[in-house]
Protein backbone atom coordinates (compact mmCIF):
# COMPACT_ATOMS: atom_id res chain seq x y z
CA UNK A 1 0.00 0.00 0.00
CA UNK A 2 1.25 3.50 -0.84
CA UNK A 3 0.02 7.08 -0.78
CA UNK A 4 0.25 9.30 -3.86
CA UNK A 5 -0.82 12.76 -4.91
CA UNK A 6 -2.66 14.14 -7.93
CA UNK A 7 -3.24 17.70 -9.09
CA UNK A 8 -6.86 18.70 -9.17
CA UNK A 9 -8.65 21.73 -10.54
CA UNK A 10 -6.63 24.95 -10.16
CA UNK A 11 -3.73 22.91 -8.79
CA UNK A 12 -5.45 21.66 -5.63
CA UNK A 13 -3.50 18.77 -4.13
CA UNK A 14 -5.50 15.54 -3.94
CA UNK A 15 -4.28 12.54 -1.97
CA UNK A 16 -5.03 8.88 -2.68
CA UNK A 17 -4.11 5.50 -1.26
CA UNK A 18 -3.09 2.80 -3.74
CA UNK A 19 -3.22 -0.96 -3.29
CA UNK A 20 -2.41 -3.79 -5.69
CA UNK A 21 -0.22 -4.35 -8.71
CA UNK A 22 0.14 -1.75 -11.43
CA UNK A 23 -0.55 -4.53 -13.95
CA UNK A 24 -4.01 -5.29 -12.54
CA UNK A 25 -7.20 -3.56 -13.78
CA UNK A 26 -7.78 -0.33 -11.87
CA UNK A 27 -10.71 0.67 -9.68
CA UNK A 28 -11.05 4.27 -8.45
CA UNK A 29 -13.02 4.68 -5.22
CA UNK A 30 -14.68 8.05 -4.50
CA UNK A 31 -16.31 8.62 -1.09
CA UNK A 32 -19.25 10.81 -0.09
CA UNK A 33 -19.62 14.05 1.88
CA UNK A 34 -18.30 13.97 5.42
CA UNK A 35 -16.27 10.82 4.73
CA UNK A 36 -12.70 10.04 3.73
CA UNK A 37 -11.07 7.30 1.71
CA UNK A 38 -10.97 5.26 4.92
CA UNK A 39 -14.66 4.42 4.48
CA UNK A 40 -13.60 2.13 1.64
CA UNK A 41 -10.95 0.20 3.61
CA UNK A 42 -12.83 -3.11 3.69
CA UNK A 43 -13.89 -2.81 0.05
CA UNK A 44 -10.35 -1.88 -1.00
CA UNK A 45 -8.88 -4.94 0.73
CA UNK A 46 -11.44 -7.23 -0.92
CA UNK A 47 -10.75 -5.73 -4.33
CA UNK A 48 -7.01 -6.15 -3.90
CA UNK A 49 -7.51 -9.83 -3.00
CA UNK A 50 -9.68 -10.14 -6.12
CA UNK A 51 -6.78 -8.98 -8.29
CA UNK A 52 -7.59 -5.30 -8.74
CA UNK A 53 -5.44 -2.21 -8.41
CA UNK A 54 -7.34 0.06 -6.05
CA UNK A 55 -7.04 3.86 -5.89
CA UNK A 56 -8.94 5.36 -2.93
CA UNK A 57 -9.22 9.11 -3.39
CA UNK A 58 -9.82 11.84 -0.82
CA UNK A 59 -11.97 14.62 -2.27
CA UNK A 60 -10.83 18.20 -1.80
CA UNK A 61 -11.47 19.31 1.77
CA UNK A 62 -11.52 15.71 3.00
CA UNK A 63 -8.88 13.57 4.70
CA UNK A 64 -5.36 14.08 3.41
CA UNK A 65 -6.32 16.16 0.39
CA UNK A 66 -5.90 19.93 0.41
CA UNK A 67 -8.49 22.04 2.20
CA UNK A 68 -8.56 25.12 -0.08
CA UNK A 69 -7.92 28.34 1.80
CA UNK A 70 -10.55 30.09 -0.31
CA UNK A 71 -13.16 27.50 0.67
CA UNK A 72 -13.94 26.67 -2.92
CA UNK A 73 -16.21 23.62 -2.80
CA UNK A 74 -18.57 24.37 -5.65
CA UNK A 75 -19.72 21.37 -7.64
CA UNK A 76 -17.90 22.33 -10.85
CA UNK A 77 -14.55 22.48 -9.06
CA UNK A 78 -15.04 19.00 -7.61
CA UNK A 79 -16.11 17.60 -10.98
CA UNK A 80 -12.99 19.02 -12.63
CA UNK A 81 -10.90 17.55 -9.79
CA UNK A 82 -12.11 14.07 -10.70
CA UNK A 83 -11.65 14.60 -14.44
CA UNK A 84 -8.09 15.76 -13.75
CA UNK A 85 -7.33 12.65 -11.67
CA UNK A 86 -8.75 10.35 -14.36
CA UNK A 87 -6.59 12.08 -16.98
CA UNK A 88 -3.48 11.46 -14.85
CA UNK A 89 -4.05 7.72 -14.40
CA UNK A 90 -2.18 5.28 -16.60
CA UNK A 91 -5.33 3.32 -17.47
CA UNK A 92 -9.09 3.77 -17.60
CA UNK A 93 -10.50 2.57 -14.26
CA UNK A 94 -13.93 1.47 -13.18
CA UNK A 95 -15.12 4.41 -11.05
CA UNK A 96 -16.94 3.42 -7.86
CA UNK A 97 -18.57 6.41 -6.16
CA UNK A 98 -20.94 6.90 -3.23
CA UNK A 99 -23.50 9.66 -2.48
CA UNK A 100 -21.79 13.02 -3.19
CA UNK A 101 -18.99 11.17 -4.97
CA UNK A 102 -21.62 9.58 -7.22
CA UNK A 103 -22.94 12.99 -8.21
CA UNK A 104 -19.41 14.11 -9.00
CA UNK A 105 -18.60 10.97 -11.00
CA UNK A 106 -21.80 11.17 -13.04
CA UNK A 107 -21.10 14.78 -14.02
CA UNK A 108 -17.43 14.07 -14.69
CA UNK A 109 -18.26 11.23 -17.08
CA UNK A 110 -21.05 13.03 -18.92
CA UNK A 111 -18.34 14.09 -21.40
CA UNK A 112 -15.79 11.67 -22.87
CA UNK A 113 -16.81 8.79 -20.60
CA UNK A 114 -15.17 6.14 -22.78
CA UNK A 115 -11.90 8.10 -22.80
CA UNK A 116 -11.75 8.41 -19.01
CA UNK A 117 -13.22 5.22 -17.52
CA UNK A 118 -14.15 1.62 -18.35
CA UNK A 119 -17.15 1.35 -16.04
CA UNK A 120 -19.19 3.15 -13.37
CA UNK A 121 -20.65 1.97 -10.07
CA UNK A 122 -22.92 4.38 -8.18
CA UNK A 123 -23.71 3.66 -4.53
CA UNK A 124 -26.57 5.24 -2.56
CA UNK A 125 -26.58 8.24 -4.90
CA UNK A 126 -29.56 10.55 -4.19
CA UNK A 127 -31.77 11.11 -7.22
CA UNK A 128 -34.13 13.72 -5.75
CA UNK A 129 -33.85 15.13 -2.26
CA UNK A 130 -36.96 15.54 -0.13
CA UNK A 131 -36.57 18.80 1.79
CA UNK A 132 -37.00 17.13 5.18
CA UNK A 133 -34.57 14.32 4.36
CA UNK A 134 -32.05 16.87 3.12
CA UNK A 135 -32.46 18.86 6.35
CA UNK A 136 -31.85 15.78 8.52
CA UNK A 137 -28.78 14.74 6.54
CA UNK A 138 -27.35 18.25 6.73
CA UNK A 139 -27.95 18.36 10.49
CA UNK A 140 -26.21 15.01 10.97
CA UNK A 141 -23.22 16.15 8.94
CA UNK A 142 -22.93 19.42 10.85
CA UNK A 143 -23.16 17.60 14.15
CA UNK A 144 -20.45 15.14 13.11
CA UNK A 145 -18.20 18.02 12.03
CA UNK A 146 -18.33 19.54 15.53
CA UNK A 147 -17.93 16.40 17.63
CA UNK A 148 -14.13 16.56 17.75
CA UNK A 149 -12.88 20.15 17.43
CA UNK A 150 -9.43 20.30 15.89
CA UNK A 151 -9.66 16.68 14.74
CA UNK A 152 -12.16 17.03 11.91
CA UNK A 153 -11.59 14.80 8.89
CA UNK A 154 -13.42 17.10 6.49
CA UNK A 155 -14.06 20.80 5.99
CA UNK A 156 -17.55 21.76 7.14
CA UNK A 157 -17.46 24.80 4.83
CA UNK A 158 -18.49 22.34 2.12
CA UNK A 159 -22.05 22.40 3.49
CA UNK A 160 -22.39 26.13 2.91
CA UNK A 161 -20.95 26.04 -0.61
CA UNK A 162 -23.07 23.24 -2.02
CA UNK A 163 -26.51 23.51 -3.65
CA UNK A 164 -27.81 19.94 -3.70
CA UNK A 165 -31.07 20.77 -5.48
CA UNK A 166 -29.21 22.44 -8.35
CA UNK A 167 -26.90 19.44 -8.65
CA UNK A 168 -29.81 16.98 -8.89
CA UNK A 169 -31.38 19.10 -11.65
CA UNK A 170 -28.10 19.37 -13.53
CA UNK A 171 -27.59 15.60 -13.56
CA UNK A 172 -31.04 14.77 -14.90
CA UNK A 173 -29.87 14.07 -18.45
CA UNK A 174 -26.31 12.97 -17.77
CA UNK A 175 -26.84 9.17 -17.69
CA UNK A 176 -27.90 9.05 -21.34
CA UNK A 177 -24.41 10.22 -22.35
CA UNK A 178 -22.54 7.65 -20.24
CA UNK A 179 -22.16 4.65 -22.55
CA UNK A 180 -20.28 2.53 -20.02
CA UNK A 181 -21.24 -0.64 -18.12
CA UNK A 182 -22.97 0.90 -15.09
CA UNK A 183 -24.19 -0.56 -11.82
CA UNK A 184 -26.42 1.34 -9.37
CA UNK A 185 -26.36 -0.11 -5.84
CA UNK A 186 -29.10 0.89 -3.43
CA UNK A 187 -29.50 0.08 0.21
CA UNK A 188 -32.80 -1.76 0.56
CA UNK A 189 -33.77 0.45 3.53
CA UNK A 190 -32.57 3.69 1.97
CA UNK A 191 -34.50 6.84 2.79
CA UNK A 192 -32.66 8.67 0.03
CA UNK A 193 -33.75 6.64 -2.98
CA UNK A 194 -37.10 4.82 -3.38
CA UNK A 195 -36.74 1.53 -5.22
CA UNK A 196 -38.95 2.62 -8.15
CA UNK A 197 -36.93 5.82 -8.60
CA UNK A 198 -33.70 3.82 -8.65
CA UNK A 199 -35.05 1.47 -11.33
CA UNK A 200 -36.21 4.39 -13.48
CA UNK A 201 -32.84 6.09 -13.08
CA UNK A 202 -30.91 2.99 -14.11
CA UNK A 203 -33.10 2.64 -17.20
CA UNK A 204 -31.77 5.98 -18.49
CA UNK A 205 -28.22 4.59 -18.80
CA UNK A 206 -27.39 2.93 -22.13
CA UNK A 207 -25.96 -0.07 -20.25
CA UNK A 208 -27.22 0.07 -16.67
CA UNK A 209 -28.21 -2.48 -14.05
CA UNK A 210 -29.58 -2.25 -10.51
CA UNK A 211 -28.64 -4.14 -7.33
CA UNK A 212 -30.31 -3.76 -3.94
CA UNK A 213 -28.60 -4.72 -0.70
CA UNK A 214 -31.19 -5.96 1.78
CA UNK A 215 -31.31 -4.81 5.40
CA UNK A 216 -29.10 -1.80 4.71
CA UNK A 217 -29.86 1.90 4.71
CA UNK A 218 -26.39 3.00 3.60
CA UNK A 219 -24.35 0.42 1.72
CA UNK A 220 -20.98 2.10 2.31
CA UNK A 221 -20.68 3.17 5.93
CA UNK A 222 -17.63 1.89 7.76
CA UNK A 223 -18.39 -1.60 9.12
CA UNK A 224 -21.35 -2.21 6.79
CA UNK A 225 -19.47 -2.05 3.50
CA UNK A 226 -18.83 -5.80 3.39
CA UNK A 227 -22.45 -6.29 2.29
CA UNK A 228 -21.60 -4.36 -0.87
CA UNK A 229 -18.37 -6.15 -1.81
CA UNK A 230 -19.99 -9.23 -3.34
CA UNK A 231 -22.15 -7.18 -5.69
CA UNK A 232 -19.19 -5.07 -6.75
CA UNK A 233 -16.80 -7.95 -7.43
CA UNK A 234 -19.49 -9.86 -9.34
CA UNK A 235 -20.09 -6.81 -11.54
CA UNK A 236 -16.37 -6.34 -12.17
CA UNK A 237 -15.83 -9.98 -13.11
CA UNK A 238 -18.74 -9.87 -15.53
CA UNK A 239 -18.31 -6.43 -17.08
CA UNK A 240 -14.61 -5.62 -16.60
CA UNK A 241 -12.92 -9.04 -16.38
CA UNK A 242 -9.29 -9.40 -15.40
CA UNK A 243 -8.50 -11.88 -18.17
CA UNK A 244 -7.44 -10.28 -21.46
CA UNK A 245 -9.53 -11.12 -24.54
CA UNK A 246 -7.61 -13.15 -27.10
CA UNK A 247 -7.76 -14.07 -30.77
CA UNK A 248 -6.54 -17.29 -32.34
CA UNK A 249 -6.39 -18.07 -36.03
CA UNK A 250 -9.76 -19.22 -37.23
CA UNK A 251 -11.74 -17.71 -34.37
CA UNK A 252 -13.97 -14.63 -34.31
CA UNK A 253 -12.72 -11.96 -36.72
CA UNK A 254 -14.20 -9.29 -34.44
CA UNK A 255 -11.63 -10.17 -31.79
CA UNK A 256 -8.86 -9.77 -34.37
CA UNK A 257 -10.18 -6.32 -35.31
CA UNK A 258 -10.38 -5.36 -31.64
CA UNK A 259 -6.76 -6.42 -31.16
CA UNK A 260 -5.67 -4.38 -34.17
CA UNK A 261 -7.68 -1.46 -32.81
CA UNK A 262 -5.28 -1.25 -29.87
CA UNK A 263 -2.82 0.40 -32.25
CA UNK A 264 -3.74 4.08 -32.37
CA UNK A 265 -3.61 5.58 -35.85
CA UNK A 266 -4.29 8.72 -37.77
CA UNK A 267 -7.09 8.87 -40.34
CA UNK A 268 -6.66 9.44 -44.06
CA UNK A 269 -8.80 9.83 -47.15
CA UNK A 270 -7.26 8.24 -50.24
CA UNK A 271 -8.35 9.89 -53.50
CA UNK A 272 -7.86 9.49 -57.25
CA UNK A 273 -9.38 10.56 -60.56
CA UNK A 274 -11.36 8.16 -62.73
CA UNK A 275 -10.58 8.14 -66.47
CA UNK A 276 -13.69 10.27 -67.08
CA UNK A 277 -12.45 12.93 -64.63
CA UNK A 278 -14.74 11.93 -61.73
CA UNK A 279 -13.03 12.03 -58.30
CA UNK A 280 -13.23 8.94 -56.06
CA UNK A 281 -12.03 8.37 -52.54
CA UNK A 282 -12.43 6.47 -49.30
CA UNK A 283 -11.40 6.64 -45.64
CA UNK A 284 -8.45 4.49 -44.57
CA UNK A 285 -6.33 4.27 -41.44
CA UNK A 286 -3.92 1.58 -42.68
CA UNK A 287 -1.29 4.07 -43.82
CA UNK A 288 2.45 4.22 -43.23
CA UNK A 289 5.70 5.52 -44.60
CA UNK A 290 7.91 2.96 -46.38
CA UNK A 291 11.09 4.70 -47.48
CA UNK A 292 12.76 8.12 -47.43
CA UNK A 293 15.00 7.47 -50.44
CA UNK A 294 13.10 7.03 -52.64
CA UNK A 295 10.12 8.66 -50.85
CA UNK A 296 7.56 5.85 -50.61
CA UNK A 297 4.38 5.31 -48.62
CA UNK A 298 1.62 2.73 -48.63
CA UNK A 299 -2.08 2.40 -47.89
CA UNK A 300 -4.18 -0.76 -47.60
CA UNK A 301 -7.48 -0.75 -49.50
CA UNK A 302 -10.34 -3.24 -49.01
CA UNK A 303 -11.06 -5.16 -52.21
CA UNK A 304 -14.78 -4.76 -51.48
CA UNK A 305 -14.67 -0.94 -51.44
CA UNK A 306 -16.55 0.75 -54.25
CA UNK A 307 -13.50 2.88 -55.11
CA UNK A 308 -11.10 -0.08 -55.01
CA UNK A 309 -11.03 -0.85 -58.80
CA UNK A 310 -10.21 2.76 -59.63
CA UNK A 311 -7.57 3.14 -56.90
CA UNK A 312 -5.89 -0.12 -57.94
CA UNK A 313 -5.50 1.08 -61.54
CA UNK A 314 -4.88 4.80 -60.98
CA UNK A 315 -1.47 6.01 -62.15
CA UNK A 316 -1.60 8.72 -59.48
CA UNK A 317 -3.43 9.10 -56.19
CA UNK A 318 -3.38 11.29 -53.09
CA UNK A 319 -3.35 10.47 -49.38
CA UNK A 320 -4.96 13.21 -47.30
CA UNK A 321 -4.17 13.02 -43.57
CA UNK A 322 -7.12 14.45 -41.64
CA UNK A 323 -7.04 16.98 -38.81
CA UNK A 324 -9.29 17.09 -35.75
CA UNK A 325 -11.90 19.25 -37.45
CA UNK A 326 -12.39 16.80 -40.33
CA UNK A 327 -14.23 14.04 -38.48
CA UNK A 328 -17.34 14.69 -40.65
CA UNK A 329 -15.15 14.24 -43.73
CA UNK A 330 -13.90 10.90 -42.39
CA UNK A 331 -17.47 9.73 -41.79
CA UNK A 332 -18.57 10.94 -45.22
CA UNK A 333 -15.86 9.03 -47.09
CA UNK A 334 -16.42 5.92 -44.95
CA UNK A 335 -20.15 5.80 -45.69
CA UNK A 336 -22.21 5.08 -48.75
CA UNK A 337 -24.84 6.87 -50.78
CA UNK A 338 -23.55 10.42 -50.27
CA UNK A 339 -21.97 12.92 -52.63
CA UNK A 340 -18.61 12.79 -50.89
CA UNK A 341 -16.85 15.44 -52.90
CA UNK A 342 -19.89 17.67 -53.26
CA UNK A 343 -19.90 18.24 -49.50
CA UNK A 344 -16.12 18.41 -49.08
CA UNK A 345 -13.78 21.29 -50.01
CA UNK A 346 -11.18 20.01 -52.51
CA UNK A 347 -9.08 21.00 -55.47
CA UNK A 348 -7.13 19.33 -58.23
CA UNK A 349 -3.52 19.08 -57.12
CA UNK A 350 -0.41 19.84 -59.14
CA UNK A 351 -0.21 16.21 -60.29
CA UNK A 352 -3.87 15.80 -61.13
CA UNK A 353 -5.11 14.15 -57.93
CA UNK A 354 -8.01 15.30 -55.73
CA UNK A 355 -6.50 17.11 -52.71
CA UNK A 356 -8.79 17.81 -49.74
CA UNK A 357 -8.20 21.40 -48.68
CA UNK A 358 -7.66 22.06 -44.98
CA UNK A 359 -6.13 18.64 -44.33
CA UNK A 360 -3.30 18.15 -41.88
CA UNK A 361 -1.17 16.99 -44.82
CA UNK A 362 -1.67 15.74 -48.37
CA UNK A 363 0.67 13.51 -50.38
CA UNK A 364 0.37 13.37 -54.14
CA UNK A 365 1.79 10.05 -55.33
CA UNK A 366 2.60 8.07 -58.44
CA UNK A 367 1.72 4.38 -58.27
CA UNK A 368 4.91 2.45 -57.48
CA UNK A 369 3.49 -1.05 -56.88
CA UNK A 370 0.35 -2.96 -56.00
CA UNK A 371 0.44 -6.12 -53.88
CA UNK A 372 -2.41 -8.44 -53.00
CA UNK A 373 -2.92 -8.95 -49.27
CA UNK A 374 -5.89 -11.19 -48.46
CA UNK A 375 -9.12 -9.19 -48.59
CA UNK A 376 -7.11 -5.97 -49.11
CA UNK A 377 -4.52 -4.79 -51.58
CA UNK A 378 -1.44 -2.79 -50.69
CA UNK A 379 -1.01 0.34 -52.77
CA UNK A 380 2.55 1.69 -52.70
CA UNK A 381 3.07 5.25 -53.86
CA UNK A 382 6.12 7.32 -54.73
CA UNK A 383 5.59 10.78 -53.26
CA UNK A 384 5.73 13.55 -55.86
CA UNK A 385 4.64 16.38 -53.59
CA UNK A 386 3.62 16.83 -49.94
CA UNK A 387 2.00 19.80 -48.28
CA UNK A 388 1.25 20.05 -44.55
CA UNK A 389 -0.22 22.37 -41.92
CA UNK A 390 1.94 22.59 -38.75
CA UNK A 391 -0.65 24.49 -36.72
CA UNK A 392 -3.34 21.80 -36.63
CA UNK A 393 -3.75 18.63 -34.56
CA UNK A 394 -4.45 15.16 -35.99
CA UNK A 395 -7.71 13.26 -36.03
CA UNK A 396 -6.90 9.99 -34.25
CA UNK A 397 -8.59 6.59 -34.19
CA UNK A 398 -8.28 4.08 -31.35
CA UNK A 399 -10.40 1.09 -30.35
CA UNK A 400 -13.14 1.93 -32.80
CA UNK A 401 -13.54 5.57 -31.77
CA UNK A 402 -12.23 8.94 -32.85
CA UNK A 403 -9.78 10.50 -30.41
CA UNK A 404 -7.78 13.66 -30.00
CA UNK A 405 -4.38 14.42 -28.52
CA UNK A 406 -4.20 14.95 -24.79
CA UNK A 407 -1.52 17.37 -23.71
CA UNK A 408 -0.34 16.70 -20.15
UniProtKB/TrEMBL annotation:
<feature type="domain" description="Flavin reductase like">
    <location>
        <begin position="260"/>
        <end position="404"/>
    </location>
</feature>
<dbReference type="Pfam" id="PF01613">
    <property type="entry name" value="Flavin_Reduct"/>
</dbReference>
<dbReference type="InterPro" id="IPR000073">
    <property type="entry name" value="AB_hydrolase_1"/>
</dbReference>
<protein>
    <submittedName>
        <fullName>Flavin reductase-like, FMN-binding</fullName>
    </submittedName>
</protein>
<dbReference type="GO" id="GO:0010181">
    <property type="term" value="F:FMN binding"/>
</dbReference>
<dbReference type="Pfam" id="PF00561">
    <property type="entry name" value="Abhydrolase_1"/>
</dbReference>
<dbReference type="InterPro" id="IPR050268">
    <property type="entry name" value="NADH-dep_flavin_reductase"/>
</dbReference>
<dbReference type="GO" id="GO:0042602">
    <property type="term" value="F:riboflavin reductase (NADPH) activity"/>
</dbReference>
<keyword id="KW-0560">Oxidoreductase</keyword>
<dbReference type="InterPro" id="IPR029058">
    <property type="entry name" value="AB_hydrolase_fold"/>
</dbReference>
<dbReference type="InterPro" id="IPR012349">
    <property type="entry name" value="Split_barrel_FMN-bd"/>
</dbReference>
<dbReference type="InterPro" id="IPR002563">
    <property type="entry name" value="Flavin_Rdtase-like_dom"/>
</dbReference>
Amino acid sequence: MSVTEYRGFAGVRLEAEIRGSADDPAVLLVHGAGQTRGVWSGVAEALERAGRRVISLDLRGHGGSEWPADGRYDFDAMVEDLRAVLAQLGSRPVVVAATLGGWIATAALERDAALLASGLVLVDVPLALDAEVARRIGARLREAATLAPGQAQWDSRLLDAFDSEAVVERLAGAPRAIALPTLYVRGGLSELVPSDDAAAFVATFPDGELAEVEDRAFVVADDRSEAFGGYLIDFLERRAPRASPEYREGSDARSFRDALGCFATGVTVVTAMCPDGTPVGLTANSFTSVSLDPPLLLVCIANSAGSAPFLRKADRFAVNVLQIGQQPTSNRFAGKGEDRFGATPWMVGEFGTPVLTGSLSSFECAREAVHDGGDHFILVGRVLKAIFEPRRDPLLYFRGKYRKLHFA
